[in-house]
Write a structure and sequence with these properties.
single chain; about 325 residues; mainly alpha
Amino acid sequence: MQQRLESNQKLQKIPYQKVNWRVWWKQMRPHTLTASFTPVIIGTVLALPHGSIHVPVFLCMLLASMMIQAATNLFNEYFDYKRGLDTADSVGIGGATVHYGIEPRVILILAVTLFAATVPLGVYICMNSSWWIAVIGVACMAAGYFYTGGPYPVAYTPFGELTAGIFMGLILILLSFFIQTGTITTVSVLVSIPMSILVGSILMANNIRDLRGDKAHGRKTLAILLGHSGAVSFLGGMFALSYLWMIALVTVGYASPWLLLVLLSLPKAWLATLAFVGKTTPAEMMPAMKATSQTHTFFGLLLAAGIVCAHLFS
């Protein structure tokens, strides 16, 4: 409580004019939105061999996915402050309340508003595919809220990486594929696996950076259970499995050799892993977090490019 009071006293010194649109944009953590942007593109280009792409449905899916993720980031802002995880000394681009004095209630209202704004987009998607999509969409929003909200937040358990991987990898790709084709194929499932792993890696990197603070606040993340060295090794294993998975798919004939374009992102994964080694403070680990996010983005975009090339030239 004393820490919260000290943070609030610091907030009073922050000029109001600093809380502008750039601050709000930062709270949505735009650099992380590729985690929802990339899977939608992959699921959509996977549908190319099955017929023409319904562009308006694709754009609605893309926008809705990014809005749900932005809302999830805002819920994270709200609940991290409420539970005392965010302080004036916190590292990162979040911390809207402790760094800029924004009322927590306003952050919560904006998050709910973003969720509400996805409803008409979802209705349009359902009208052009299946109303079962609405059920899955609601489940995705619930996962976004309960990641840090509710009495038993997923973020306080060892299942954060798994949850993020399922909803922002597997489900997003398959949803994007289904609304274009009306079906799910073995290939679409298999191709979604490495992206699911890499979405989980972003959460793992975040939890490695925040390990000490999370542990002090009672979290039991996978990074805490493994310890710093173990978590970094686990992260490296996640990267390795993603690349080996794609090599295996090509080797057994489930995917075109064009998909091996993803190997061009391997140096970034190597850099992300090494950048965590020997680091002890959150500030020192920020470059590793950035490299992890970039690995997911580069891998995903190269995968999408490989799928398109396979369609055009095979």
